[in-house]
Design brief:
The complex is a heterodimer of chains A (597) and B (222). Chain A is built from 14 helices and 17 strands. Chain A is α+β, with helices and mostly antiparallel strands. Chain B is mainly beta and 222 residues long. In chain B, the strands form five sheets. Chain B has a five-stranded mixed β-sheet, with no helix packed on it. In chain B, 30% of the residues are buried. Classes of the chains: A alpha+beta (597), B mainly beta (222). Chains A and B meet through helix 2 of A and strand 11 of B.
Chain lengths: 597, 222
């Protein structure tokens, strides 16, 4: 019977310590948050810069528009009095256009002192401003002289064809203005044109077309902004080369862009440029025009990468600091856990006397406190167990603990042994009770050791006698043989003890084998594992019959011995409770198996 | 007694007959012209009101039409222009009349009745002239209009002043009143074309036969 404690629980093997995982988690969290924040910072910065560029473009558009409006207003203010001249009106009324041109030129000279008029007065430069009268049938009235200006490389007929497009729809009396391209022999030219209707009260007499060439780049622009105007598929710019026109045109024509002002990036000769355009609405008769800007993104990209570098550095430094902090913090958190772990390791090896000090008042303190209670509980259980083992046979205790023994019994084939002290009564008549108990304890201790060794189960102690069962609750094979060996060993042990002990005691043993009822008997709350049956009685009677140092066995036991022990017959004994006499034998030496030679 | 009475009345009868003979075949044409297409008369702008001389401005002459009967058969004797010049005045910063029909060859003088300068001119192909600036009291310039057609008059100083001289090839003309009613008398019988000139863009024409009686043509409109 294995009576050792259950195998200790081994803790699982630790591959990554808790401290390591905690450190890693904290570090990961910190670095993650930092990284996200820094990334967002960088993105915000870049976006802000982008907004700044967008604003620059918007600003530029506004300035160009404002300047153009100012120019037109100045022109309108200059022309208006001249268009009110009675002579001009009279000439147009009678369709005498030669007179209208000269009268208008005269009126213009008199009224205006602005640049345009001066240019027109002294021999008009060929690519300066010009004016023309449109007839009601949209054709251009031919001017009589050069005072009304002209364009170098454009014949009057060509100018006529170009300007006809500007004729008013339904002869409306509204002032119109806008950008207008005119094809010349030297390429397309861009003009700003103001159309003033001249009426006689209610009816339109003629449209006065007043045109001035667009000065390129009079807009205020930062060095990094290149701007121009795109009209009728032709680019007018002093800073944007015509080679970019296809890309620009393609970007504007993309049908996917819905908004009228968009920003697209163009890569030009390795330089990253932000391409902005805005459609400028024009009055009736004028073709659509786009204001174009190319803004260098070099600064933005430089800023972006330098910011990124700084932030990366910051991230690395922070990560380092975070690492140290996390290790320290993790260490402090896990230290108390490790104390617990050590305690549990001790408990696992069977040491239940571990007590830890729960400092603080958090969950780990609670855990420590509960750990202490647990070990105390375990220690108590261990105590109970050992007590149980002392009070009951360890085998029976085991079977009880495992829940295998319930109220009730079974038929079992066992060998029962009774052993008592010869002449106990007379021996202990004058002994004080304390001494009697001391003597019995010494005696029983010696005997139960031997009994245990020989796989016997002590049933009970009855005063000076001990009742032993061999083969219940479980059998160990040759129960009868074990019982006989036990008997011999008990004799020898007692003899040995007699030499050293105060007390000289002689015992008698009775053995009987056969079927009994074995099991838990008693009540639910109070049980006893014992056996009942004829053999029990027989064993007790045989023990009574046994003289000092005698082991008396029944016939069944003898039969089971199968000559392995020397025996002497004791004859047929008439025992109380048995109708027939029982042939008993005295147990002798065990016959050791001889070596056959 | 009866015999003397008869002799006197007979003479009278003969005399009166002699007088009446030349007027025997002349008619009258009356009617009304729709003036809705006439150009609106332009009043002087307020800024003139305070000018030098404190000239009071007059409202412009009302819009009227000129009705004339044309025919290729009109004898030359009937088309003799008057000897005295017809006046087209500048008064209260307006031309009066707004439309002046004359027969070819008529002289027109342009007296300035305002205290300030006017400069009457015309660029019309019919007759182009420029009278320059002259003040009240100076000898009014006279122009002879030898070509038939419309002559638009402007004043260089005052842009609102407008008038049109219609040089006609018939003596049988009149100007309607402000409502468009007209009456042309002593028109020899015959067939004519009745023209109603409302503006340079609006000329009603219809054939008409004039008899001794009075002919009411009714309303002339589109």
């Amino acid at each position: 019977m294995d009576t050792s404690a259950p195998p200790p629980l081994r803790p699982p093997a630790l591959h990554f310590s808790f401290r390591f995982k905690l450190t890693l988690a904290m570090l990961g969290l910190i670095v993650g948050i930092l990284g996200a924040v820094l990334y967002l910072t960088q993105r915000t910065l870049t976006e802000q810069y982008q907004q700044f560029l967008n604003a620059q473009f918007e600003q530029q558009v506004k300035i160009v528009q404002a300047q153009q409006q100012a120019r037109f207003k100045a022109a309108r203010d200059a022309i208006y009095p001249a268009t009110q001249s009675v002579r001009v009106l009279a000439a147009l009324s009678d369709e005498i256009y030669e007179r209208s041109y000269s009268d208008f030129a005269d009126a213009l000279v008199e009224v205006m002192k602005q640049t345009y008029a001066e240019e027109m007065v002294d021999a008009v430069p060929s690519n300066g401003p010009f004016f023309r009268f449109l007839r009601l049938d949209s054709s251009v009235a031919t001017p009589p002289d050069a005072r009304s200006g002209s364009i170098l490389g454009v014949s009057e007929k060509e100018l006529d064809t170009a300007l006809t497009k500007l004729a008013s729809r339904e002869n409306k009396l509204t002032v119109r203005s806008g950008y207008f391209p005119i094809q010349s022999a030297h390429g397309q030219l861009l003009y700003e044109i103001l159309i003033t209707p001249i009426s006689d009260g209610e009816h339109l007499l003629s449209d006065l077309v007043f045109a001035a060439p667009v000065q390129s780049n009079d807009s205020v622009s930062a060095a990094a902004i290149r701007s121009g105007l795109l009209i009728n598929g032709k680019l007018f710019s002093s800073t944007i080369p015509d080679t970019l026109l296809p890309q620009i045109q393609a970007a504007i024509d993309q049908p996917s862009k819905a908004a009228s002002d968009e920003q697209v990036n163009l890569m030009v000769q390795g330089e990253n440029l932000g391409f902005y355009y805005k459609k400028i609405s024009q009055d009736y008769g004028f073709p659509p025009i786009y204001q174009i800007s190319l803004i260098s993104l070099a600064d933005r990209d430089a800023l972006s990468s330098s910011v990124r570098d700084v932030l990366l550095l910051a991230l690395l430094a922070s990560a380092l600091v975070a690492l140290i902090l996390c290790i320290v913090v993790a260490d402090r958190i896990t230290a108390r856990i490790y104390v617990l772990v050590e305690g549990i390791k001790k408990v696992a090896t069977g040491q239940y006397d571990v007590t830890l000090s729960p400092r603080g008042s958090d969950e780990i303190s609670l855990l420590t406190h509960n750990f202490n209670e647990m070990t105390a509980g375990l220690a108590l259980k261990e105590k109970y167990r050992s007590v149980l083992d002392k009070v009951t046979d360890p085998q029976v205790a085991e079977e009880i603990l495992q829940g295998k023994l319930v109220l009730g019994g079974e038929n079992r084939d066992v060998t029962i042994m009774f052993c008592d002290i010869r002449g106990f009564t007379s021996l202990t008549a004058d002994m004080p009770p304390a001494e009697v108990i001391e003597m019995l304890n010494e005696h029983m201790t010696a005997l139960t050791t031997v009994i245990k060794t020989n796989k016997g189960v002590v049933d009970k102690f009855i005063g000076d006698a001990v009742m032993v069962i061999f083969g219940a609750p479980k059998s160990y094979g040759e129960d009868a043989l074990n019982a006989c060996r036990a008997a011999s060993a008990m004799m020898a042990a007692r003899e040995n003890l007699n030499k050293s002990s105060r007390y000289r005691i002689r015992i008698g043993i009775g053995l009987a084998s056969g079927e009994v009822v074995a099991g838990m008997m008693g009540s639910e709350d109070r049980l006893n594992y014992t056996v009942l049956g004829k053999q029990v009685n027989l064993s007790a009677r045989l023990c009574s019959n046994a003289g000092p140092d005698e082991v008396v066995i029944c016939p069944t036991t003898l039969a089971r011995l199968q000559e392995r022990f020397a025996t002497t017959s004791k004859g047929a004994l008439q025992l109380k409770g048995f109708s027939e006499p029982i042939t008993a034998h005295l147990l002798g030496q065990e016959r050791l198996p001889s070596v056959t030679s | 007694m009866a015999f003397t009475h008869l002799k006197h009345s007979g003479l009278l009868f003969l005399l009166s007959f002699a007088l009446l003979v030349p007027l025997a075949h002349a008619g009258t044409v009356t009617g009304t012209v729709d003036l809705s297409a006439a150009p609106k008369p332009q009043p002087a702008s307020q800024r003139y009101a305070g000018q030098s001389g404190g000239e009071k401005t007059d409202p412009p002459p009302p819009a009227v039409a000129v009705v004339y009967l044309s025919s290729p058969d009109i004898p030359a004797s009937a088309k003799t222009p008057p000897t005295a010049p017809v006046e087209l005045v500048q008064k209260g910063l307006q031309f009066f009349p707004g439309v002046l029909p004359i027969i070819v060859g008529t002289k027109v003088s342009f007296p300035n009745q305002d205290a300030i300068y006017h400069n009457v001119f015309s660029y019309s192909k019919t007759k182009s002239f420029d009278l320059g600036r002259y003040a009240k009291g100076s000898e009014p310039k006279v122009e002879t209009f030898d070509t038939p057609g419309a002559v638009k008059l402007f004043c260089e100083v005052h842009s609102h002043m407008r008038s049109t001289i219609l040089v006609l090839e018939t003596p049988y003309f009149t100007t309607t009143d402000a409502t468009g009613k007209f009456r042309i008398e002593n028109v020899p019988s015959g067939t004519y074309t009745l023209n109603a000139w409302v503006s340079e863009k609006k000329l009603f024409t219809r054939p008409i036969t004039v008899t001794d009686a009075e002919i009411a043509v009714g309303e002339i409109k589109d």
